[in-house]
Amino acid sequence: MLELGKKQVLRVLKRQDFGVYLSDDPKAGKEQQVLLPVRQVPAGAEIGTPVEVFLYRDSSDRLIATTNTPKVELGETAVLRVKETTRIGAFLDWGLEKDLLLPFHEQTCRVEKNDDVLVALYIDKSGRLCATMKVYHYLHTDSPYSVGDVVQGRVYEQSKNFGVFVAVDDKYSALIPKKDAQGEFRPGEILKVRITQIREDGKLTVTTKQKAYLQMDTDAERIEEAIREEGGVLPFDDKADPELINSRFGISKAAFKRAVGHLLKERKIRLDDGQIYLKE
């Protein structure tokens, strides 16, 4: 069976001046044969010779074989470079002669030339191979990691209800829960995240925060520096509205209170009239 979008081993059925026809069935009819262009036919290939090829459609939408290896196969994910954008979408470099279309309706954010985007390969309603940035259902749930591991993840979508969706190593499904997704996140952004949970379905729960005692030191340093930038006075204290704290520092009110308490304990600041003053 000829499988679009996948590498497979087929055998040479017949030779022509312009290439060879391949199939997995020596008695296959014309509809179950695929052309491998002459420039890609391995030296010495004869009738019956096995050849590993990838099947896709050419510029005329005809099924064709290639011995070149694409950067992504059907149902898998990969990071590809945008070569150009047009009125129908973006075209990506995936290692083959014909560039891969990323339609506008499969983009989760606007992409530009030379952007690197995480996509999955799928077959559209017309039977053509296309890319999608909606990769949630294509990501793997069998990561080799354990709780506490620090890994690299790529943001691919943000949800007001759930949080920030991340692809660890560009292939494993992960989520920064809404309660931890404070600050600004952009699709395509690379993050260093810590695994806090491995769910029963294998999906990862991650956070950009360090362990509490380490995070408190980091937050305290940021707050102290912010007070210096404000001329020695921060115009609100740890009783401020959580949204104000989050917009200014990208942390929760609880984390802010811990960091402020740490600075008070070290006698670096004082609180007065709803403001925080730096001690010199």
Explained architecture:
By secondary structure, the protein is mainly beta. It is built from three helices and 18 strands. It has helices spanning 212-229, 242-249, 253-265; strands spanning 7-16, 19-23, 34-37, 50-57, 63-66, 77-86, 89-93, 100-103, 116-123, 129-132, 150-159, 163-168, 172-177, 190-198, 204-207, 233-234, 269-272, 275-278. The strands form four sheets. Strands 3-2-1-4-5 form a five-stranded antiparallel sheet, with no helix packed on it. The chain has a five-stranded antiparallel sheet with strand order 8-7-6-9-10, with no helix packed on it. A five-stranded mixed β-barrel has the order 11-12-13-15-14. Strand 6 (77-86) and strand 7 form a beta hairpin. Helix 1 crosses helix 3. The longest helix is centred in the last third of the chain and has 18 residues, at 212-229. The model has no long low-confidence stretch (mean pLDDT 89).
What features would you highlight for this structure?
single chain, 3 helices, five-stranded antiparallel β-sheet
Q: Strand order across the biggest sheet?
A: 3-2-1-4-5
- Please provide the ordered H/E string of secondary-structure elements: EEEEEEEEEEEEEEEHEHHEE
- Measured on Cα atoms, how large is the radius of gyration? 27 Å
The helix content, as a percent range, equals 10-25%
Globally, the shape reads elongated
End-to-end distance: 77 Å
Which sheet architecture does the biggest sheet show? 5 strands, antiparallel
Main structural class: mainly beta
Strand content: 35-45%
Poorly predicted spans: none
- In DSSP terms (H or I, runs of 4 or more residues), the helix count works out at 3
**What's the average pLDDT?**
89
- Number of distinct beta strands: 18
